[in-house]
Records
---
Amino acid sequence: GAVVSQHPSWVICKSGTSVKIECRSLDFQATTMFWYRQFPKQSLMLMATSNEGSKATYEQGVEKDKFLINHASLTLSTLTVTSAHPEDSSFYICSAAGVSTDTQYFGPGTRLTVL
Amino acid sequence: AQSVAQPEDQVNVAEGNPLTVKCTYSVSGNPYLFWYVQYPNRGLQFLLKYITGDNLVKGSYGFEAEFNKSQTSFHLKKPSALVSDSALYFCAVRDIGGDYKLSFGAGTTVTVRA
């Protein structure tokens, strides 16, 4: 149980385009989802927290207009990187937590490369 | 405020030897403590957690961790390491009374040599 998927697993895009990453909880209802960014050989940096049906809460320094987060259902959250630039290239990981669990379960991550 | 420290960037052990990955934490209230493992280009896999109860917690793949309140530590251990245990390990903490936000340590790279 407690499986979280992400799609796509990797994406390459041109500078200036937008990219959408999906995060799904497959076997539980995720009332809260988190989006992280990870640089090589570093820890996870929390970008934002999203609760189903409400606006995401962004961490300090994260541009909410650049990283659009939608949590429209209890099993799906999306992160859209708008007008992507090479400095947005990174490994993006989502996690999900439900009402009945006190544990965050992580997706497999999405490698974004912006050319 | 909550934080985690993993004092070792790297741990190297021989296969079959005991493995210990250290973690100390700081929270204002009572902690929820977690260990996750990350393989290259993958997300984090949950290993084990301490919420309450027995200080010795057993988790996946033969790992266990001991909660020590007086030393504010939650070290991860495995009696006999395998080469396949080579990965990046993260300790994380959150305050029981807080939201779901986790604070992660910097991570410890474990290398188990054959």
---
Amino acid sequence: DAKTTQPPSMDCAEGRAANLPCNHSTISGNEYVYWYRQIHSQGPQYIIHGLKNNETNEMASLIITEDRKSSTLILPHATLRDTAVYYCIVRGTNQAGTALIFGKGTTLSVSS
Amino acid sequence: GAVVSQHPSWVICKSGTSVKIECRSLDFQATTMFWYRQFPKQSLMLMATSNEGSKATYEQGVEKDKFLINHASLTLSTLTVTSAHPEDSSFYICSALPGEVRSGNTIYFGEGSWLTVV
């Protein structure tokens, strides 16, 4: 799987949009970009994933650059409950049955 | 989303005893489940991959005789920590892959189980 690079920490004011970047410059054509988050002392929670096109669901939006070398997870209106570690993971179609490998992620702190 | 449940949420056991942690997929069948361990302030570390009806595949450095994994049905995998020692104290997390294996599948995680060995 391609490696990802994320900033170790970010701050965001409550009610504002949180934009979490992820660099995956070595991503190959068959690799998806997945985002999970882990709130303290809980298991990771699935947020969103995509291949080429931008994706949106009730939790967040995923913006993938045209060259697919980076992506941004957007939480449109951050709340205190969004404080968590956010993980960006790439995973190939040839590894559909394999586990997600976690890096260090970005610790997002939302404050009032 | 799909639900994965772990039990117990937390357990305290005496050094030298064994403890079992269950992972269940509640609303889907999972041919593949994964077990992770997480120490404080660290990321999740994959321990093993569990496939229904076959032996688990362990990551390098994980003792298969100490961490026994059984995936007897499509909705249940168990992790047994045998002869537990204080250094085994950790947060254990399972995840499950729904249905047939195909690209773009979403993997869902349990709530995690805290193990403290005293």
